[in-house]
Design goal:
This protein has 344 residues and is α+β, with helices and mostly antiparallel strands. It folds into two domains: 143 residues, Cholesterol Oxidase, domain 2 (2-Layer Sandwich); 133 residues, FAD/NAD(P)-binding domain (3-Layer(bba) Sandwich). It is 22% helix and 20% strand. It has seven helices and 13 strands. The strands form four sheets. It has a six-stranded antiparallel beta sheet. A three-stranded antiparallel beta sheet has the order 2-3-4. Strands 5-13 form a two-stranded parallel sheet. Helix 4 packs across helix 5. The longest helix has 18 residues. The chain is globular. The model has no long low-confidence stretch (mean pLDDT 94). The protein binds iron/sulfur cluster. The site of iron/sulfur cluster (SF4) has 12 residues, from loops. The site of iron/sulfur cluster has 12 residues, from loops.
């Protein structure tokens, strides 16, 4: 960080969703990035929401249950039930209010798969925007390799946002640079089987590893469709120039910091970890799927609350934005649909 600061950059500590109570918690192991935590110290969806919800006693978790489709009441204006399949049995669950939160690809797929003769384009889709505007960020992994060994175990600690809104040479937003969990030879060999293991070991022992993340833009042609029960993803990258400019600056900064060998890999579109945008919210029912509280414009008792509502992807991880909007929508539902005043 000192070497980056000496170049005029402003690296700052990365927010990490981990529990560190005085009595224990996170032990800063080497498998945080992309793995479940074996000692329940990661503030992931299970720890932060699912387990507390189950502990309240009002929530039933149905495991190994597949949501097939949503069913409509005869007037088409509200949801009548959810058709689910468990152990080969199909049943219909009913409620007053339905919240779909299957993440951007699967939420869109469920809405599309729920098409009827009266609504052949799927549910919540009078705007024809369901499944469209899929985004997932332009992402690259970068290894900056020097002569000295990097003995770190927990590396995901630094973020650089100096290029987020552009700079003098490139005026447009470029995105965010953040350190990755330490890359290990095994992961690299799995990703590049043609590179011998010992070469990957030499590189991984001497590298600092970074994630370069730039905004991709909503395009109606980048979309999720369902055909014969199969989900299809049709995506063409856009806004790559900004990502290339950020990659160039990241590589320059690492070389100046004394790490001369730079290896970068642009993640393929099959990397769906930051998926968002397939049921965008807005103020106009003609051009959006959801209202500003994630309620379907078409079906009053249906909400879609996950990354589907994003009208743009920004260049930061989507999880906290999803959580913030979920709290906001939950307060709205409690008040509007159930007459419960909420502290939020
Ligand atoms: S670093 Fe991550 S996986 Fe390891 S103990 Fe901490 S929270 Fe768990």
């Amino acid at each position: 960080m000192e070497r980056l600061r000496s170049q005029g950059l402003h690296p700052f500590p990365q927010q990490a969703s981990i529990y560190m109570p005085p009595s224990g918690g996170c032990i800063r192991c080497g498998t945080c990035d992309g793995y479940p935590c074996q000692i329940d110290a990661k503030a992931d969806a299970e720890m932060s929401t699912l387990r507390p919800a189950l502990a309240m006693g009002h929530v039933v978790l149905r495991k190994s249950t597949l949501v097939r489709r949503l069913l409509l009441n005869p007037d088409g204006k509200s949801i009548a039930g959810v058709e689910v399949e468990q152990d080969g049995r199909t049943e219909v669950l009913t409620a007053k209010t339905y919240v779909l939160s299957a993440s951007a690809i699967n939420s869109a797929a469920i809405l599309l798969h729920s098409a009827t003769d009266a609504m052949p384009n799927g549910l919540a889709n009078s705007s024809d925007q369901v499944g469209r505007n899929y985004m997932t960020h332009n992402n690259s992994a970068m290894m900056a390799v020097g002569a000295r060994k990097n003995a770190t175990v927990f590396q995901k600690t630094v973020t650089i946002n100096d290029y987020y809104f552009g700079d003098d040479e490139f005026r447009w937003p470029m995105g965010c640079l953040m350190s990755l969990g330490k890359l290990r030879a095994g992961v690299m060999t799995a990703a590049n089987p043609l590179v011998p293991q010992f070469v990957n070991e030499l590189l991984a022992q001497r590298s600092f590893d970074w994630w370069i993340m730039s905004e991709d833009l909503p395009s109606p042609e980048n979309r999720i469709t369902v055909s014969g029960g199969t989900i299809k993803m049709d995506v063409r990258r856009n806004n790559l120039r900004a990502h290339q400019e950020l990659t160039k600056r990241a590589s320059r900064a690492m070389k100046r910091a004394g790490l001369p060998l730079i290896l970068t890999k642009l993640m393929p579109v099959a990397t769906t970890s930051h998926q968002c945008g397939t049921a965008r919210f807005g103020t106009d029912p003609q051009t959006s799927v959801l209202d500003p509280f994630c309620r379907s414009w078409d079906h009053h008792n249906l909400f879609v609350i996950d990354a589907s509502f994003f009208p743009s992807s920004a260049a930061v991880n989507p999880a906290l934005t999803i959580a913030a909007q979920a709290l906001r929508a939950a307060s709205h539902i409690a008040g509007e649909d159930f007459g419960i005043s909420s502290p939020h």
